[in-house]
Amino acid sequence: MVQGETMPIPPIYFIRHGETDWNAEMRYQGQRDIPLNIKGEGQARRNGAKLAEILPNPQGTDLYCSPMTRTRQTFALMMQEAGWTDTPWANSVVFEDKLIEFSFGDWEGWTLEEIKEREPTQYWAREEDKWATKMPNGESYQMLAERIGSWFYKLDKPTVVVAHGGVLRIVRYFLEKVPEQDAPLLKTPQDKIYFWSGDEARWI
User: Fold this and answer.
1) 164 marked as binding residue
2) CB–CB of 75/101 below 8 Å?
3) Is 147 annotated as a binding residue?
4) Residue 74 among known ligand-binding residues
5) pLDDT tens for each residue of 37-95
6) What is the pLDDT of residues 137-169, one digit of tens each?
7) Residue 97 to residues 3, 40, 68, 147: CA-CA distances in angstroms?
8) Residue at 3 is within a domain
9) pTM of the entire structure?
10) Is 101 marked active-site?
11) Which CATH number characterizes residue 100's domain?
């Protein structure tokens, strides 16, 4: 399945993990397992409270979470704030490996300025085509779309997802029919829920 499929997509509630110290330092995080910081914990709680408002009865809704530490922490705090900890629904969560963050390969742990200084050729090559250019020993967004698509196009129920910024960009690419070169630039705030109603998207 690729972007442009016409099958209906059920409602999606997408929560990006809260902030980490590497997010705050503008370091490429990727598949490094960095925990939430204090601000990130607050964002997770905020999103849990808001989710309980807009989804008062989650029964019948599928629940997915990336298995990484920062998403597991976000999930736990979200469930606690929503009052759903230890409910049968919360215990139905699927920790899905396909939702692990985009791999930045050798650049993980580096800031944008460090990449430009240390590997300018590779940096500018990627700037020319962020969709198809693979980072050294990492992924391209095109590769990420293939990985996420194999999960996304099997969704058949309203779904809550706790995952990452790169994953959210691809979900938005699929849902909003965003051009490939624009998808890597999409915003992915950590203090809001991305809600797809089945027909349109909005931030909550």
Assistant:
1) no
2) no
3) no
4) no
5) 999 999 999 999 999 999 999 999 999 999 999 999 999 999 999 999 989 999 999 99
6) 999 999 999 999 999 999 999 999 999 999 999
7) 21, 22, 9, 10
8) no
9) 0.94
10) yes
11) 3.40.50.1240
- The one catalytic residue in 101, 108, 139, 164 is 101
For 22, the domain range is 12-199
3-state secondary structure the chain: CCCCCCCCCCCEEEEECCCEHHHHCCECCCCCCCCECHHHHHHHHHHHHHHHHHCCCCCCCEEEECCCHHHHHHHHHHHHHHCCCCCCCHHHCEECHHHCCCCCHHHCCCEHHHHHHHCHHHHHHHHHCCCCCCCCCCCCHHHHHHHHHHHHCCCCCCEEEEECHHHHHHHHHHHHCCCCCCHHHCCCCCCCEEEECCCCEEEC
Q: How many domains does the chain have?
A: 1
Is the pLDDT assigned to residue 117 strictly greater than 90? yes
72 is in an annotated binding site: no
17 in active site: yes
91 is in an annotated binding site: no
The pLDDT tens digits of the residues spanning 11-41 come to 999 999 999 999 999 999 999 999 999 999 9
Cα dist from 28 to 23, 105, 137, whole Å:
8, 10, 14
In the block, tokens 């964002």 appear at: 43
